[in-house]
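User: My advisor, Dr. K., asked me to get a structural model of this assembly before our group meeting. I'm new to this, so sorry if the format is off. These are the inputs:
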Amino acid sequence: MTNPTRNAPCTCHPAWGSLGGAPRTFAGRTGNLLHVSKDPYALAVDAAAALKNVTGVESFDVALVMGSGWVAAAEAIGTTVAEIAVTDLPGFAPPAVAGHAGRIRAVTTGTGRNALIFLGRTHLYEGLGVEPVVHGVRTALAAGAGTVVLTNAAGGLRPETQRVGDPVLIGDHINLTGANPLTGARFVDLTSVYSPRLRALAKESDPSLAEGVYVAFRGPTYETPAEIRMCRAIGGDLVGMSTALEAIAAREGGAEVLGLSLVTNPGAGLVGEPLNHEEVLEVGRATAARMGVLLADVVGKL
Ligand code: HPA
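Assistant: The format is fine. Below is the predicted structure of the whole assembly, which you can bring to the meeting.
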C-alpha cells in the first residue's frame, strides 16, 4: 500500500526506530512514586509479535477502531481470518463497559488488504492512564498498519443540521481530555491530523457526508449544557470521549488517519432530554450496518 504521509520509519520515539528490537524498560514518575514499567512502544511491538503468532497474518495494511456496538459494521469490511480477545495480547485491558466488545479481528478486505479491526477500545475514563488508551493504535502501527480508521459514537453539537444516526467525518479535533499520549520533547505536527486525502476518499463514497470538529472530553460523565454551549462557541460540531488521543498516537507513528463519528444524540441540554448510555449504544447498533457499508467502500479505495 502506498502511503504518502507515512513517515518512514517513525523517528519520534527511539522504540519505533527499532521495531522488533529487544524490549526496553523505562522509568517514569507518578506523583512521588518512581515506578519502572515497560516502555509502551516496546509493549506495542510485543503485542504486534503476539498478534502475528495468533492470527497467522504477517502484517496489516489498515486498522479500524470501532465505536460502541459496531460489530455489524465490522462484518461489512471483509472476511474474518481470525478473532481473538484483546486480553490474548500483552498490554490490553479487559473491556470495562458492557457493549464494548474487547475483541480483535483479522479480516481480508474485498480488495485483498489485511485489516485489523478493534471491536471496542480502552477509554481514558477507565482510569488506567493514557497508555492503554493508545495501545491498540500503537500495536496496529507496529503490525504494519499505515492507515488508521477511528470511529466513535458522538453527541451532535449542531442539531440544526445534524440528525441522530448521521455519520460525520472528523475534520479536526479539540482535545479537552487534559491528557496526551506523548511525553517529552516530541513536537508532532497536528496541522492535518485527519488526512485530507482520506477525507476526500470518504466523500467520494458518500458525497452527503458532513464534516465536523470533534471535541474530546475525558468523561465518564456526559457534558453539562454549559460545556456543550462552550463546545459550540469554540467551534466544535461533535463531542465524545475517545478518538483524539488515538489520532495523536497514530500521527506520531506516521499513519494516515480517518475519523468518522456517528451522531447518537444531541449534546446535553440542546433538546432537553437527559442522556442515556443504553440509547447511545442502541443508535450505534441500529446504524452500524450502514456505517459498515461506508467504511468498506472507503477501505476498498485505500
Ligand atoms: N457526549 C460524550 N460522549 C458521547 C456522547 C455525548 O453526548 N454521545 C456519545 N458519546
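One thing worth pointing out at the meeting: Confidence is low (pLDDT under 50) at residues 1-15, 17-36.

User: Perfect, thanks a lot.
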